[in-house]
TrEMBL record:
One of its GO terms (molecular function) is cysteine-S-conjugate beta-lyase activity. The keyword Glycoprotein does not apply. PANTHER family: CYSTATHIONINE BETA-LYASE-RELATED (PTHR43500:SF1). Its cofactor is pyridoxal 5'-phosphate. It catalyses: L,L-cystathionine + H2O = L-homocysteine + pyruvate + NH4(+). This is Cystathionine beta-lyase. NCBIfam families: cysta_beta_ly_B, PRK07050.1. Gene3D superfamilies: Aspartate Aminotransferase, domain 1 (3.90.1150.10), Type I PLP-dependent aspartate aminotransferase-like (Major domain) (3.40.640.10). SUPFAM superfamilies: PLP-dependent transferases. InterPro entries: Cys/Met-Metab_PyrdxlP-dep_enz, Cys_b_lyase_bac, PyrdxlP-dep_Trfase, PyrdxlP-dep_Trfase_major, PyrdxlP-dep_Trfase_small. Keywords: Lyase, Pyridoxal phosphate. The modification N6-(pyridoxal phosphate)lysine is found at residue 212. The lineage of its organism: Bacteria, Pseudomonadati, Pseudomonadota, Betaproteobacteria, Burkholderiales. GO terms for biological process: L-cysteine catabolic process to pyruvate; transsulfuration.
Length: 397
């Protein structure tokens, strides 16, 4: 029934503060989009009783809405964690870990195969903020103990490396770190939390670029930090709050929409990628195929031991050293079904050449030829194979 008092108010007031009468009982499979900057409190006592790290209470839209918290909870469940925080990109999630856990004078260990922007971030912190950074051979394993310093606070891992595909001995590194009281964080974007469960192998924090498989559409930027530790979660959340990091509820709803199909898509990417990797391994133009499921990929034994559920759509090849960078560029540009692009995780296949030697500082890259990383989308395998073969013939015949 209409409130009689409202009829006496100005039209503008009634537009701003309407009397909505919506029939209760509506349900659907999707999580409603709850947009908010201002969160309204029923009374001052409720507002004053709030604790900033309590996810069960609403404080301000920046820190969470029902939509963003629903996504965080589902991400934690997928990875086997207890707590998750959303950030506006994968790199923002990496930044959240740095600023939440290390300060000037602290030492950080970063694998030589780390995501390029992570290296840039570490170099920036070392140059401008007084953080000490050491890059290490990703195949070091338990030997990382020799690189730990009295001020080491954080060890990064990435397994596999998202370009060079080495699979680290994560449990060995995590065990050393835990014995020394050092936090470990892994960029687990490669597996989307499906194929590799870092917490089961002793890692403290998992970072995900939800831009990739979780989104699945090449149209969303988002990241997440996930942990089982309430203490670490609180540190990360405090840093996120102080930096003013938040995500759009609309973007979160798009990722939520894609999550139910993520495992099915991941498995489809994996099947086609592995088939193409095996086919390329027999090509005379190719000196090496770097795919974790292939026996000669560095760290394959760790992949076999620790990964359950495939490797998704990402792998790299190294061309025979007799081919120049210009010829490899011609190959990439001759591809019709593979676009040239940095990201991955969507439906469309991608190819990108890399100069690995320029990216390494702590380990020797064993290959002389040019590397091309492929992301295999959801196109038909036979069409992608035909496209690759035509481009190989055109560029190298």
């Amino acid at each position: 029934m209409t409130d009689p008092k409202n009829q006496d108010r100005d039209l503008q007031t009634r537009i701003v503060q309407p009397e909505d009468r919506i029939t209760p009982g509506f349900e659907s499979f999707s999580v409603p989009v709850a947009r908010a900057s201002t969160v309204v409190f029923p009374d001052l006592a409720t507002m004053r009783a709030l604790v900033w790290h309590d996810d069960s209470k609403w404080r301000y839209g920046l820190h969470g809405t029902p939509t963003t918290i629903a996504l965080a909870q589902r991400l934690a469940a997928i990875e086997g964690g207890e707590y998750a925080l959303l950030q506006p990109s994968g790199l923002a999630a990496i930044s959240n870990v740095y600023f939440g856990l290390v300060t000037a004078g602290d030492h950080v260990l970063v694998p030589d195969n780390a995501y390029g922007p992570n290296r840039d971030h570490a170099d920036w912190l070392a140059h401008d903020f007084g953080i000490e950074v050491t890059y290490y051979d990703p195949m070091t394993g338990a030997g990382i103990d020799a690189l730990i310093q009295p001020n080491t606070k954080l060890i990064w891992l990435e397994a596999p490396g998202s370009v060079t595909m080495e699979v680290q001995d994560v449990p060995a590194i995590a065990a050393v770190a835990r014995a020394r009281g050092i936090v470990t964080a892994i960029d687990n974007t490669f597996s989307a939390g499906l194929a590799f469960k870092p917490f089961d192998h002793g890692v403290d924090i998992s970072v995900q670029a939800l831009t990739k498989y979780q989104s699945g559409g090449s149209d969303i930027l988002m990241g997440a930090t996930i942990t089982r530790s309430e203490e670490l979660h609180k540190k990360l959340k405090l840093a996120r709050m102080r930096m003013g990091i938040g995500v759009s509820a609309d973007d979160a709803s798009l990722v939520l929409r894609s999550l139910p199909s993520m495992k099915t898509r991941y498995e489809a990417h994996d099947r086609t990628a592995f088939a193409l990797a095996q086919w390329l391994k027999a090509r005379p133009e190719v000196a090496a195929v770097l795919h974790p499921a292939l026996a000669d990929c560095p760290g394959h034994a760790f992949y076999e031991r620790d990964f359950k559920g495939g490797a998704g759509g990402l792998f790299s090849i190294v061309f025979d050293e007799r081919y120049s960078a210009a010829q490899v560029d011609a190959f990439v540009e001759a591809l019709e079904l593979f676009s040239i692009g940095w990201s991955w995780g969507g439906a469309h296949s991608l190819a990108m050449p890399y100069n690995i030697r320029s990216m390494r500082t702590a380990s020797q890259w064993p290959h002389e030829g040019v590397l091309v990383r492929f992301y295999i989308g959801l196109e038909a395998e036979e069409d992608l194979r035909a496209d690759l073969e035509a481009a190989l013939v055109k560029a190298f015949a």
